Amino acid sequence: MRPEPEHLRCPDCGHDGLRWPAGADALDCAGCATEWSVVDGLPKLYRDAALGRVDRMMRRIYDGLPSLHDPLVRVALPLLQGRHENEHAVREAALDRLRLDGLAAPADRPLRVLEVGVGTGANLPRLRARLPAAPVEVWGLDYSIGMLRRCRRRCRRHPSLGQTRLLLGDAHALPFADHFFDRVFHIGAINGFEDPAAALAEMARVARPGTPIVVVDERLDPSRDTGLLRRLGFRAVTFYDPAPACPRDAVPAGAADVRDEQISRCFYCLSFRTPG
Ligand SMILES: C[S@@+](CC[C@H](N)C(=O)[O-])C[C@H]1O[C@@H](n2cnc3c(N)ncnc32)[C@H](O)[C@@H]1O
Predict the structure, then answer these.
(1) What is the mean pLDDT of residues 224-250?
(2) What structural domains and CATH numbers belong to the chain?
(3) Is the pTM of this model over 0.85?
């Protein structure tokens, strides 16, 4: 569904609350008068020029191949990791670490969860199944219009996902007020981000103090033997990064419960609590 403009922050001046008159093809900021475009019905709250070189290259790939993403993940993960370490296992392990059990909405507003780099929305049905029925807001941000179009299609087809709020944004400058979300997570792209520390700081900023932040991406398990074929496969999947590693040293100062875990042969999970 259409994100509420009053909940969006201007990435240029930091003013909280944008205006988006019904039917208008742009949002505007009352703070600095910047206009933000609407692309195919989705607010676009970042500038192409602000993206780094790798981010721009990766966005071209995601925009060009959104229909291949899900089948590739489904087939490639068991090949790379073995039958039991499939897509389902990796996604569930990541969501386990978000600690959603028993989570309830605060008294004065809905429970809010953000996936940064939501892609085609493959995590959303699993996430929704772990959340209470209402009042809940699930937000998905991504910089690729191709991926978000597929995500929107998934949300329209899936009865429980119809209320998902989707928008175009850059993980390095999240267009939300401080402490807006009860949970924030990201799966699958931080290794290629221009500045992982800035992205982690942004995830922490928009999360309620003390809440868990979960970030998952590729890293070969150093404690397991990996044959040549798997190493070559891993290299192909992570072609943009010569040494995929967990950005543990980039978590914001003051973060608590910092954990760097290998959740499968090819994926780490970095989790921490935001500074209180
Ligand atoms: C490998 S896909 C994973 C998608 C989804 N999280 C999942 O688990 O299936 C990574 C996603 O991150 C998005 N992404 C990469 N860099 C980004 C950035 N700087 N800001 C926002 N989204 C980004 C890509 O467009 C893509 O949709």
Answers:
(1) 91
(2) 1-38 (no CATH), 46-273 (3.40.50.150)
(3) yes
